[in-house]
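Retro notes, item 3 of 5
We never archived the inputs for the zinc ion complex last cycle. Fixing that now. Sequence and ligand:
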Amino acid sequence: MPRHADRKQHTREYATRNGLTYQRAEAQLRARRADPEHDRVRRYVLSGEVAAILAGEGLRGVAQVEPADAWLARRTPRYECDVCHREGDARIEDTTLGLVMAAYDPDISPVTGMISSRRQHAACGGCWVHWAYNVEIPQGPTFLSLPAIAEPDLAAELSVEVHPILLPDGEGEQQPALMTTVQVTKDAGAGAAAWLSQLELMLREAGFGTLDDPGEAEGWSVRVVEHYPASYTAQWVAVRATPARDGVAPDHVYLGAWSPSWEWLAAVGRSRHILLIVGPVSVAGEVPDPPDPGNVEALWELDEEGALLAAQVPFELDDMSDRVPRPERPE
Ligand SMILES: [Zn+2]
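Structure as it came back at the time:
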């Protein structure tokens, strides 16, 4: 066999053995040939947690995980120690790893990803993992683009806000609901009423009914997060129009910080479903004023006019107080 065919075959075998693409295997083998010491065994000392992460255990939404040995072998053996800042060499000194990981969250971080990694002399410190949750949660209204059904190039901009409300159920009990108010902020010259009518069509198609006779909206759900492990936004809510799936964030009608009252949280308790109210939509070509969420009479009036849509949707109260970030790496 000619020499280059031999080498190609070798590269293919190496790629298969280590779960690499051909190009990556080729790059690794080229690096080894350029550095005769490259093949010396790396002296990584991995903790159970770090080894598990490198093996892909518990990682969500990650399509493919490179085998840990291959990942470690691909890195230059020399490094600057993260603790003493002197040079280290994983070929001749025991070396530990620190990983900064983006923690999984179905709404804002649907992939568990490695943000960065550090190395240090094992003598200077052990392995560590830091789970980063500090994603900025938006404050205030969510702005949505609503494309025209007939002309997808044409779109309106909607401003969406959410209000936790309690509705008397007639038996002296308070039923928790989520009022989602919608306003057209850019109508692309078509007038707000036309867009609100289109929104109504889409919501009815999704399964929304009236306040009196709510529908079941397929794929929609509400997730309320308490004690989110980022210091500045501990409470937020996500109103989803599509299901949460690993690797893909849902379409959000609303995602943002909020602070419901304790009465509302107590009323919602361990409910598995919640009444989601959306409106106002247009009535006979007119755009009603957004309701005062505290005024239940006004809500019923709007409902009688046909300006509100409602659906029972799955509800999740996600208390994350047990998931505080692990301690920062040792100093
Ligand atoms: Zn060191």
